[in-house]
Amino acid sequence: MERLERVDKPKPDAPTLKLNFTPETRGGNDIVRCKDVGKSFGEKSIFTDLNFEVYRRDVVGIVGANGTGKTTLFRMILGEEPATEGEMWVGPTLKFGYYTQELEGLNPDNEIIDEIWELRPQQTQGEIRSFLGKFLFSGDDVFKRIGNLSGGEQSRILLAKLLLANANVLLLDEPTNHLDIPAREALEAALAEYPATLFIISHDRYLLNNLATKLLIFDGTPGGTANLFEGNYAEYIAQQQEPKENQQLSENIQASQPSQISPQKSKSKSKRKRKIKAQRLVGSN
Q1: Which of 63, 145, 174, 205 is such that its CA lies 20 to 30 A from the CA of 109?
Q2: CA–CA distance, 134 with 153 (Å, rounded to integer)
Q3: Spatial distance between the Cα atoms of 141 and 112, rounded to a whole number of angstroms
Q4: φ and ψ at residue 237, rounded to 5 degrees
C-alpha cells in the first residue's frame, strides 16, 4: 500500500469538513451475495469465481492492482453491468451512494451553489450556502464554476452530494485521493460513525486499518479472482507474513534441537505472534 506524505497537523482553529452520512431508510440485512461470479468483456476475462457475502454494517475494503475489476464490481452491484457467469444477488431495498475515482457526476458548467441547489430546490439560497459552508465553501466561492475547480474542491462537492443522497450503502472508489490530510481525517471520522454498509476501494492502508471489517483482495492475475478476508489490512499483512515466520521458526528449531515442538504449542505461538504483529502494524499508523 502507498504511504501517505507526512504533513503538519492542522491548527486547532483551522476550518474542517463537517460530515454526517445518515441513511434515509434502514434497508435489509443481506446486501450482496456472489456465487461463482465472473465478468468478461468479449473475449477478455476480467475476473472469475467470486464467492462472498456481505451483510448490513460490514465495511468491505477492496484492494488489488489497477485493471483487476474493482470498479467493474461496483458497477455490477449498481446494476450497470451484468455478470457473465455465476449468480449475483443484490438486496432489493438498498439505496446506493456512489463516489467515483474520476469525480464523475458533476456538471462542469454549473456553479457550485447550483450543483447542490438542484438536489434541494425547495431550500432557500441561505440554506444552501449554509450547507456548503460545512464543505468549506463560503462567500463568493459558492459561485465558482465547477469546471474551474481543483480536484480537492470537486471532491468536496461530490461528498456533499453523497451526503444528500441519504444512502444505506456507500460505494467509495478511492475517496481520499484528492483530499488533504484534515479532509481525510474528517471523512474517516464520518465513515466510522456511518450506521450502514460501506464498500471502499482504496490504496490508503490507514483508512483500511481503521475502518475495514473485511477485505476483498483481487489477486492481480488476468482473469483472476478475489478472496474475502475477515479483518483489517494490518491483520491481513500479519497473516501473510506468518507462513514465512513459521518456516524460519521451524528451521531455527531444527538447527538447535533434535526433538520436535508440539503442533498445538506451535499453533498457539503462531496465533499469538500474528495478533502482536497486527497490533504493531496498526500502532505504527
Answers
A1: 174
A2: 13
A3: 8
A4: -65, -40
3-state SS class at 25: coil
Q: What is the pTM of this model?
A: 0.81
Residue 68 lies in a domain: yes
Q: What is the pLDDT of residues 267-278, one digit of tens each?
A: 555 555 555 555
203 located within any domain: yes
Per DSSP, the residues of 87-150 read EEEE-TT--EEEE-TT--S--TTSBHHHHHHTT-TTS-HHHHHHHHHTTT--GGGGGSBGGGS-
Q: Which CATH number is 51's domain given?
A: 3.40.50.300
Whether residue 73 contacts residue 62, with contact meaning beta carbons closer than 8 Å, is answered with yes
Looking at the structure of the chain, the number of domains it has is 2
**Per-residue cell: 194:** 456511518
Average pLDDT of the chain is: 87
The answer on 66 and 206 residing in a single domain is yes
Contact 129, 142 (CB under 8 A): yes
Residues 55-96: tens digit of each pLDDT: 999 999 999 998 899 999 999 999 999 999 999 999 999 999
Per the model's pLDDT, the better-predicted residue between 11 and 103 turns out to be: 103
